[in-house]
Amino acid sequence: MANGFTTKPPRRLTIIAIVLALWGAMGVFAFYGDATMSAAKLAAMPEWDRQFYATRPGWFVWAYGIATWAGLAGAVLLLLRRALAVPAFAVSLLAALVQFGFVFAATDLVAVKGAAATVPFPLFILAVAIFQLWFATDARRRGWLR
Cβ(87)–Cβ(136) under 8 Å? Predict the structure, then answer.
């Protein structure tokens, strides 16, 4: 009986999809913590962070949410071996680029906190997002996704 796949996927597809799903879940958890931050946690933040949190545009929160939720959805779709993982990861990458683009282009974050403290983790997040999209696209091309 045909299963809709052109090639049997290697075990690494499942392993990578699980790791990406865990990464996505951590991102959603971080977004949830940001979106539901208590006044006490906000008061404990450094002044620049409090000011940023209070003045960031509403669309920024949406970009953050879309980046994390679309990344988690893409990983779950990858686990389910669905080709819809590709557009989900593309949306996640685009939203992350918008989010970080705003932070680095429209704020003085780097001037205040320094590049060494602020640039590496966003670069890592973007590298993972690029990898997710590349991997899902390659998996689809190889016939591992339907």
Answer: no
**Terminus-to-terminus CA distance in the chain, angstroms?**
15
Token output for 67: 């980046």
- Per residue in 88-145, pLDDT (tens digit) is 999 999 999 999 999 999 999 999 999 999 999 999 999 999 999 999 999 999 999 9
Domain segments of the chain as ranges: 11-141
Rounded to whole angstroms, how far apart are CA atoms 108 and 122?
Answer: 15
Distance from chain centroid for Cα 10:
25
Q: What is the pTM of this model?
A: 0.92
Measure CA 144 to chain center: 23
